[in-house]
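Two entries, shown back to back:
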Amino acid sequence: GKLGDKSSIGAIVEFMQNEDWEFGRASAALALADLEAEDTVEAIMQCIQQDEDEFVRRDMLRALKMFKNPITRPLVHDIIENDESWEVRKMAVESLAWIADATSVSILVKSLKTDNHLFVRQEAEKSLQIIAQDNKIPWTSAEALLARRNEIID
């Protein structure tokens, strides 16, 4: 990915899907993001859903965040609500700030109020603040932003 050779995209996707080494799978997803290989977003999403290693899922989410593609929302929402790893949930919450919609605001507020890990709750608040700023909504509280969620520009 760092060399910018887009001819290697197919091989990188195949490596990401089939490599036994966890670091290799995660690095492949990040390389695809570095290459801005937008057409690989769905392949990365499938790998996240199938991978059992929490650190691979976290780093693949980091790659997805770099694409800022709204098609990732349903997956990111699901991860925030259901993944057992706080590190994976934290990365999902962070990435949601860049692809937010009205539903995302509701999910982030819920995460802020109910997630069992402090770092996830802190990241949810940061993401809500970013969303408010990006939509020119003054930040006062999560509840105030939730009340104005329909003003979020998709």
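entry 2 starts here
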Amino acid sequence: NMTKDDDKLMVEIIERNKKLIEEYPFLKIDDNCDTIDYTWLDDMPIGWRIAFGEQMCKEIKEELIKNNELDSYKIIQIKEKFGGLRWYDNSGLPGMQFIIAKYEALSEKTCINCGKPANWISTGWISPYCDDCATKEAKAQGVDINKRFNKIQED
């Protein structure tokens, strides 16, 4: 049973996704499906989406256009693994591999929750967190921050 607020939010999500798919057609998950309440970008953790999601898509689109591959490009999977972004696709272009590697590396230093620079890496389920989100997370679990997180080492 959806409320008016749920309906409103759903409309906003669909509108946002419509714009995203118009700009980046490769974000549409299923060509045969008309529903657009979900795009490939929705599989990316929110903090990374905020920090660089659309910028990454913009660079990918430019590279695809430059190589005349926009129409044939397909995303296979986007996910988080071991605290980093994993972006799988059907492109073998060196320029694409460079773009994806750049953002996969950036993700490991970007808060998975809010997109700010990460200073902490969680133990157990490995994810990067900024000071604020790590502090909140540790407090919510009632543990000292150093029990739940390790400082990210500078390169």
